[in-house]
Amino acid sequence: MSDWTVEDIEKLGEQVEAEAAAAPDLQALEQVRIAYLGREGRITAALKAIGKMPADQRPAAGKAANLARQRAQQAIASRRKELEAAQTRAGADDQLDVTLPGVGPELGHRHPIMIVLEELCDIFIGMGYEVVSGPEAEWQALNWTALNYPPDHPAMDEQASFYVNDEVMLRTHTSPVQIRAMRARHQPDCPVRQLDWRVPPMEVLGHCRCTPSPVRVVVPGRTYRRESVTLTHHDIFYQFECLLIGEGISFADLHGTMATFVREYFGPNTRIRFRPDFFPFTEPSADFSINCEMCGGEGCRFCKDSGWVEIGGSGLVHPNVLTAGGYDPDKVSGFAFGFGVDRLAQRRFHIEDIRTLYENDMRFLRQF
User: Fold this and answer.
1) Sign (positive/negative) of CA torsion 79, 80, 84, 90?
2) Is the pLDDT of residue 222 over 90?
3) Rounded to an integer, what distance in angstroms lies between the CA atom of residue 240 and that of residue 119?
4) Is the separation of the CB atoms in 137 and 169 below 8 Å?
């Protein structure tokens, strides 16, 4: 409209109130706002046209235009509150509609590795052990040197392990927690507890000013190695480790603990076998096997006709490792053993491919 009159401007207020009240939803109400108060809206155009009116009409026209704008803003704001309240009520009515079918929460499932880990922890807690943990990004000094690894051991190569920097790496086993657990058993005021982890292992015992308490712990945790991923191997896997340190601990204690564990976990008729082996952190060392459950020890493809299935490694804690933990090897001794949890989960649930455990496929996990 090119020629505005005061009467035309006054009618705008009535028109916008009527259209706002008739708007069926928020989208239509927004179109009403744009049509009247937008950059090209009718009330906006009327305000711009006041300057072109005769001087005697401008005061009345300005007053009418401002009044029309106020009526438009109030009408639109009021209708918006009504529509929003209606939407809220509609949403609440939908939620409370008892005729709709129920939607229950989707229950989670325990991972097979966690099922095995929890059962292992329960067994050893029942034997008086404490469950402890340590960092997965570990000092090289604890992962290798404190555990009596020689400087030229092939496992320390970058092709075999994951390194963060020159001093930190992703742990290749849970054994570094042995050192952490031993030093934590010293008295609170003993310098060994505050000792830098990079102090040479043979110097640790010289800082001890107390008689540390015995150690009886198990260590479940995730470990990392540069390995080719196959049906039975993965570069990320879980280990479970046991450590006992005290006076007069012998291989007989190791055998008794292992026998109790395998009979509790694998069944009362399970037999255990030790064979000499070598590990830098134990002396003497042995791998341990159980009779094959597939063939009852008669020999089959699963056990490669031997009648035995290897589970893990074990041995008496090496004196150098005891020294690194601040224990005097002339006064105490101990044993340690460990094994892969993934392998136990594979056997427990008859999982052919170990990679299935880490794919997070809900079709697989819903089975547990």
Assistant:
1) positive
2) yes
3) 12
4) yes
Instruction: Report the 3 state secondary structure along 272-310.
Output: EEEEEEEECCEEEEEEEEEECCCCCCCCCCCCCCCCEEE
pTM assigned to the model: 0.67
Of the two residues 285 and 105, the one the predictor is more confident about is 285
172 vs 175: CA distance, rounded Å: 9
C-alpha to C-alpha distance for 97 and 367, rounded to whole angstroms: 34
pLDDT surpassing 70 at residue 232: no
Nearest residue to 290 via CA among 276, 315, 307: 307
CB atoms near residue 328 (< 10 Å): 13
* Cα 290 to Cα 271: distance, rounded to the nearest angstrom: 6
Strand ranges for 107-194 from DSSP E: 130-131, 137-139, 168-170
Please give the structure tokens belonging to residue 114. Answer: 């966690």
Nearest alpha carbon to residue 177 among 241, 124, 82: 241
The candidate with the shortest Cα–Cα distance to 37, out of 13, 57, 3, is: 13
